[in-house]
């Protein structure tokens, strides 16, 4: 497999290098050279395959031998060891539950696959791998739990102080072992900026073997394509083949993976990119002007992103042609009030509790149906996290309906371990340089 940087398309690297470097020196993003299209026979009979069979087929096509088949199969079996069911709410509305992994969020797909791929590529006696990751909440938990105990790795997680939920904070700060948490007095964008700057800092790169676990890593993007194919397989079994996916979006990795799946031949009628008021992308669709802005705190905090880091990849997939993109993607953005109303309506109509991110994707389906006149397609909204991660959102009957999964029960009562830092790079660098890893 060869990958190029979106900033320098002429220069290519192999998969291993893209996985460990995460971001090219020119600050572009890695993209696969030539996206494979899966054979028609496979797509037409996809309902006959299991999630892990589908995952293997898709990964093997993209990786093109970068990991031998048997090893790839083992990585997939180990990483994707939880289901991704599509649940029917009504005849034309389904929800794809992506929260059955250890951190209760869809990011488990990416983080678990990536950690195992990195581990596979590391040879004995190599320098410890230092994973730096900025999180607005869910990435950190998935990465921490994905790397916990993986030999020869040290993970540093940066999260915005006071801006993650209690359960998220437990997932970030109670692990010990090879995982440590840094509480940053700032926003997620500040955390992300610190990590990005660390990757371009000469001294840090000389001392440490730095790598990113953020959604910019190509090894996180690839496994996120699996569940789109697998959702389609489930729907096909139910006799549904005209499918619209609505994706709650922040850094646009999730929907980016969906679009990659589509490019690989997955039949999708439309994607909906649903955001909270951090609407850089919906505004771009309206005005044609791409104007990143500082993020605003919302109920759906994992989507509080003012400058989505995967957007470049999506533009790249569409040769920077907004009109082409508009044919397959529509957008919608929602306030906290609308989010709360959607959570309530879904509960009232379906007796089903969703997290605030998920609610936004559902709300966007309604608007899509109205504005497009497409009433018949089967609309699937991606449920990106378990509602118990956001307890402040629910009251009364709804709160009572949320069950706490085993993964969370084991964290309660464990002591918090974290270091508090400001937003200036010098302080962060000093902290990293001072640590013996
Ligand atoms: C990360 C996250 C999102 C946003 O996903 P992107 O790939 O960054 O667009 C949405 N919902 C939840 C619960 C998340 O954790």
From TrEMBL:
GO terms for molecular function: pyridoxal phosphate binding; threonine synthase activity. The modification N6-(pyridoxal phosphate)lysine is found at residue 107. It comes from the Bacteria. Its cofactor is pyridoxal 5'-phosphate. Residues 4-79 form the Threonine synthase N-terminal domain. Pathway: Amino-acid biosynthesis; L-threonine biosynthesis; L-threonine from L-aspartate: step 5/5. InterPro entries: Ser/Thr_deHydtase_PyrdxlP-BS, Thr_synth_N, Thr_synth_N_sf, Thr_synthase-like, Threonine_Synthase, TrpB-like_PALP, TrpB-like_PALP_sf. Pfam families: PALP, Thr_synth_N. The keyword Transcription regulation does not apply. Keywords: Amino-acid biosynthesis, Lyase, Pyridoxal phosphate, Threonine biosynthesis. Its EC number is 4.2.3.1. It catalyses: O-phospho-L-homoserine + H2O = L-threonine + phosphate. GO terms for biological process: threonine biosynthetic process. Residues 95-382 form the Tryptophan synthase beta chain-like PALP domain. Belongs to the threonine synthase family. This is Threonine synthase. It comes from Arcticibacter tournemirensis.
């Amino acid at each position: 497999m060869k990958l190029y940087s979106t900033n320098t398309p002429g220069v290519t690297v192999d998969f291993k290098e893209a996985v460990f470097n995460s971001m090219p020196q020119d600050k572009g993003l890695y993209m696969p050279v030539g996206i494979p299209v899966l054979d028609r026979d496979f797509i037409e009979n996809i309902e006959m395959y299991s999630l892990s069979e589908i995952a293997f087929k898709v990964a093997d096509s993209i990786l093109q031998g970068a990991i031998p088949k048997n090893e790839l199969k083992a990585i997939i079996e180990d990483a994707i060891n939880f289901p991704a069911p599509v649940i029917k709410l009504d005849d034309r509305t389904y929800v794809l539950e992506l929260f059955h992994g250890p951190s209760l969020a869809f990011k488990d797909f990416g983080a678990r696959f990536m950690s195992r791929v990195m581990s596979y590529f590391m040879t004995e006696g190599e320098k410890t791998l230092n994973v730096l990751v900025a999180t607005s909440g869910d990435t950190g938990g998935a990465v921490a739990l994905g790397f916990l105990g993986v030999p020869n790795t040290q993970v540093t997680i940066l999260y915005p102080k006071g801006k993650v939920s209690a359960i998220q904070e437990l997932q970030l700060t109670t692990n010990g072992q090879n995982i440590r948490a840094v509480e940053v007095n700032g926003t997620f964008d500040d955390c992300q900026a610190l990590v990005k700057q660390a990757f371009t800092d000469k001294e840090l790169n000389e001392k440490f073997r730095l790598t990113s676990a953020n959604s910019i890593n190509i090894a996180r993007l690839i496994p996120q394509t699996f569940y789109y194919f697998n959702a389609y397989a489930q729907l096909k079994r139910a006799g549904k083949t005209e499918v619209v996916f609505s994706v709650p979006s922040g850094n646009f990795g999730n929907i980016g993976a969906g679009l990659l799946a589509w490019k690989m031949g997955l039949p999708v009628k439309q994607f909906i990119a649903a955001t909270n008021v951090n609407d850089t992308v919906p505004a771009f669709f309206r005005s044609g002007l791409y104007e990143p802005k500082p993020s605003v705190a919302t109920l759906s905090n994992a989507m509080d992103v003012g400058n989505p880091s995967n957007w470049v990849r999506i533009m790249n997939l569409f040769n920077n042609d907004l009109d082409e993109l508009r044919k397959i993607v529509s957008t919608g953005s929602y306030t906290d009030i609308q989010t709360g109303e959607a959570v309530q309506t879904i509960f009232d109509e379906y007796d089903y509790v969703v997290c605030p991110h998920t609610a936004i994707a559902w709300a966007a389906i309604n608007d899509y149906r109205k504005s497009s006149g497409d009433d018949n397609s089967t609309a699937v909204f991606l449920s990106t996290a378990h509602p118990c991660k956001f307890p402040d959102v629910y009251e009364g009957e709804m709160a009572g309906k949320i069950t706490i999964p085993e993964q969370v029960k084991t964290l309660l009562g464990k002591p918090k371990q974290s270091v508090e830092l400001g937003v200036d790079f010098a302080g962060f660098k000093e902290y990293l340089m001072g640590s013996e890893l």
